[in-house]
Amino acid sequence: xxxxxxxxxxxxxxxxxxxxxxxTISTQKxxxxxxxxxxxxxxxxxxxxxxxxx
Length: 54
Hints:
Layout: H1 2-6, H2 11-17, H3 22-36, H4 41-46, H5 48-52
Helix pairs in contact: 2-3
C-alpha cells in the first residue's frame, strides 16, 4: 500500500485497485505511518530510499 502511495495513487485509487473500502486503506496507511514514525506523505517520500532496501 505504501508503494502505491509512493507511485502517486490516492487512498481512493488504492482502495479501488485492491477492492477494499477507502476507510480500510486509510486506516492501514495511518498504521504504517505510525510504525515508520512519520506523519505526512512528504515524510514518506523523504524515507523512500530506506523502503527500497526492504
